[in-house]
């Protein structure tokens, strides 16, 4: 089984709404929030979420390097094969967090992907630099497909496979 780490903001991790936007980085050795939906799709790809890392998106925006360093250290310590940042959907702060963390992980040699909608301002900012799986603005049509695509791309990256053709189909 390939080891995947999921990175979420405070809301997606189930740690409250905007009153917790300054939540310091933390993690749990479990699939939290959207990780529950991703689990069966990852299993089909012989991959599993070994941990969910999370922090408040406002905290992240004010302490990017500190959080990136902690999350990269954790990913290396637990020998993650790949990282999924998101799904950020259309949420701008989480999109910025997901896009920039994906870039950090890749710079440190850890395969990583992000997931967000076209409406997210971070999509335009990061789509040339990191793979961003397309997803709908909020739930609804195409959501299950985007989760399947996130699992497939993360697993392929975890296995060290060439993902160019796949990214052309499912990413921005």
* Extended strand count: 6
Low-confidence spans: none
Largest sheet: 6 strands, mixed
Q: How much helix, percentage-wise, in residues? A: 40-55%
Beta-strand residue fraction = 15-25%
**What is the N-to-C succession of helices and strands?**
EEHEHHEHEHEHH
* Oligomeric state of shown chains: single chain
Shape: globular
Mean pLDDT, nearest integer?
A: 97
C-alpha termini separation: 28 Å
Biggest β-sheet: strands ordered side by side in the sheet: 2-3-1-4-5-6
The DSSP helix count reads 7
Radius of gyration: 14 Å
Question: What would you say this structure looks like, in words?
Answer:
- Helix content is 44%, strand content 19%.
- The chain has 172 residues and is α/β, with parallel strands linked by helices.
- It has a 6-stranded mixed sheet with strand order 2-3-1-4-5-6, sandwiched between helices.
- Strand 4, helix 4 and strand 5 (112-116) form a beta-alpha-beta unit.
- The longest helix has 16 residues, at 92-107.
- It is globular.
- The model has no long low-confidence stretch (mean pLDDT 97).
């Amino acid at each position: 089984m390939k080891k995947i780490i999921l990175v979420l903001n405070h809301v997606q991790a189930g740690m409250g709404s905007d009153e917790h936007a300054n939540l310091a980085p933390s993690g749990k050795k479990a699939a939290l929030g959207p990780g529950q939906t991703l689990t069966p799709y990852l299993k089909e790809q012989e991959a599993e979420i070994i941990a969910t890392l999370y922090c408040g998106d406002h905290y992240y925006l004010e302490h990017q390097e500190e959080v990136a360093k902690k999350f990269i250290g954790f990913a290396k310590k637990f020998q993650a094969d790949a990282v999924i940042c998101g799904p950020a959907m259309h949420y701008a702060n989480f999109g910025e967090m997901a896009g920039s963390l994906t870039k950090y992980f890749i710079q440190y040699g850890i395969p990583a992907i992000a997931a967000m909608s076209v409406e997210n301002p971070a999509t335009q900012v990061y789509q040339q630099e990191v793979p961003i799986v397309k997803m709908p603005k909020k739930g609804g049509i195409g959501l299950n497909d985007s989760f399947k695509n996130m699992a497939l791309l993360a697993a392929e990256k975890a296995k060290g496979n060439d993902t160019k053709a796949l990214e052309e189909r499912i990413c921005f």
